């Protein structure tokens, strides 16, 4: 047994490769874990856009007989309006699945983070790896959703494919924010269910997903302004059909999403380091 | 004298007002099996976390493989194998996958880690369970898998924190056998335990720790020689009579032994001739409910040093 080399690259300091690629090793590990529920991932990735676009695009859209927004080529139909928001919502749903229980249990019920901590990799790499694995699941989910949008005629033009990236950015901002919180949970008192019911669900309903935010009374519109989903949906509409809005507002959407992502990531990293005793 | 792989001097760890490790001094030589023996809460695990370069010290000096863990944590951890007190295998993965993902954290290529994983599964006697889910394994199997995982990077030092706590006797013996083989191969073992038989089985040298301080240091046999008698006579008179009988025996130790200790359930008589002491005892009219003559152990050393038993 002792004769076998571990193939550590000659000449390198111990742990040098881990310091370079540690985040990717964590992501690799997490993606392998996702294999155990791969069927669910595939089913929801394909089933969800088909069901939502059918119900809203073919069903509800038939009742909405007025144009709800204006794009680069004039007024757009309800299906066009709602589709980019549904795409962003799909990314946020992935965030809800991957940044809640998987993060909490990695500290508690299946404490793999403590095992990783005993290796050359750092808490920052652990956090980066977790987020990379979430992005690696989110990106294809968004791509499938975008494909369904094309099939349903809910978007056109090459630029609209950028919606895959804006939706992923939205989802990752939410994922980092949730992971920041999930990492603090030391005792399960149903906090994850609360995130779903009183965090993600209201965000879904009050972020201008199904109707323009301006339809809400002004005292409820703030929910949209602080919601990553509203910023992501609006950004998606800009790239999908050229929704008309001031350029500064588009910049705000992007800056807000990156800001939330940075805030979430930094907190996730600090909490993880603290809980790992670093 | 070979260069030590671990050097601790005045090593201290404080959590606010509580001092978990209070100025430990010890060295570990390459290839040595070194044990920290002490009861729960003695500071053993805290010491192991500092040696494992995952917890910074509050004071003193510590060198692992010639490096300061506060500054060279990743370099040190790259050369350690760690078996924590509580298994932290990935229960969502299968047995072999646990080794594969873990090996990657050390920068080992996929093909090399696959080969190494198969060897280690053989070593841990888990080759036939390679595709099993981790939660299907028994406690002993999980422990062996954790040890196999700790060996994936061919560590220069293997740290084992309470390696057999919670295992049944058979599983413990299988594990000891595997650890003994590693020792024979020259792997440096640093382990904590509160089982004296484990320390005696595996360790070349031991420090006895209590309340974060070293009480004694030496080989198991040397410690027993220094702090205990050759044999111990254990007698039971009933829980309500033990103290009185011991007090009476204390008045005249002649023909019995060197000293007497009273535990809640039994009286220990430290002597070089257990059978002779038992005979003297019965001649004096004492009739214990049960009696046992055994050789002295590290448990007795600990009792002598601290006035308490290891497992309370």
Give the C-alpha Rg of chain A: 21 Å
Number of helices, counting only DSSP H or I runs of 4 residues or more of chain B? 11
- Give me the count of strands of chain B: 13
Report how far the terminal alpha carbons of chain B are from each other.
Answer: 39 Å
Q: Tell me the number of structural domains of chain A.
A: 1
Q: How would a textbook summarize the main sheet of chain A?
A: 2 strands, antiparallel
The CATH topology of the largest domain in chain B is Rossmann fold
**Multimeric organization:** heterodimer
Query: What is the helix fraction of residues of chain B, given as a range?
Result: 25-40%
**Helix vs. strand class of chain A:** mainly alpha
Shape of chain A: elongated
* Uncertain ranges of chain A: 1-9
What does this structure look like?
The complex is a heterodimer of chains A (278) and B (312). Chain A is mainly α. Chain A has one domain. Chain A is built from eleven helices and two strands, in the order H-H-E-E-H-H-H-H-H-H-H-H-H. A two-stranded antiparallel ribbon of chain A has the order 1-2. The two termini of chain A are 33 Å apart. With 312 residues, chain B is of the alpha/beta class. Chain B has helices at residues 44-51, 73-77, 95-104, 110-123, 139-150, 169-184, 196-202, 220-227, 242-250, 274-283, 298-306; strands at 6-15, 18-28, 33-37, 59-64, 80-83, 157-161, 188-193, 205-210, 213-218, 231-236, 259-262, 267-271, 290-295. Chain B is globular and about 75 Å long. In chain B, strand 8 and strand 9 (213-218) form a beta hairpin. At the A-B interface, helix 1 and helix 5 of A face helix 2, helix 3 and helix 4 of B.
